[in-house]
Write a structure and sequence with these properties.
It is built from two helices and no strands. The protein is mainly α.
Length: 64
């Protein structure tokens, strides 16, 4: 009985160790982003702001 219990304990221990190692590997794998948008530089934002002809600081709220 003692040998059987020892075998079960080692099996469970190695299973837990394998799951932890697998989790670490999966956690640090590189992934690709689902959204492929790119940011713009402050200089590009300034150029876009200067070329915009609409009002910059006006907006309509839900209560008018």
């Amino acid at each position: 009985m003692k040998k059987k219990l020892k075998k079960v304990f080692y099996s469970l221990f190695f299973l837990v160790v394998a799951v932890v190692i697998f989790g670490w590997v999966v956690a640090y794998l590189p992934t690709t982003w689902k959204i492929q948008n790119k940011g713009i530089t402050p200089g590009e934002a300034a150029i876009l702001r200067q070329s915009y002809s609409g009002p910059h600081d006006e907006f309509t709220t839900t209560d008018g």
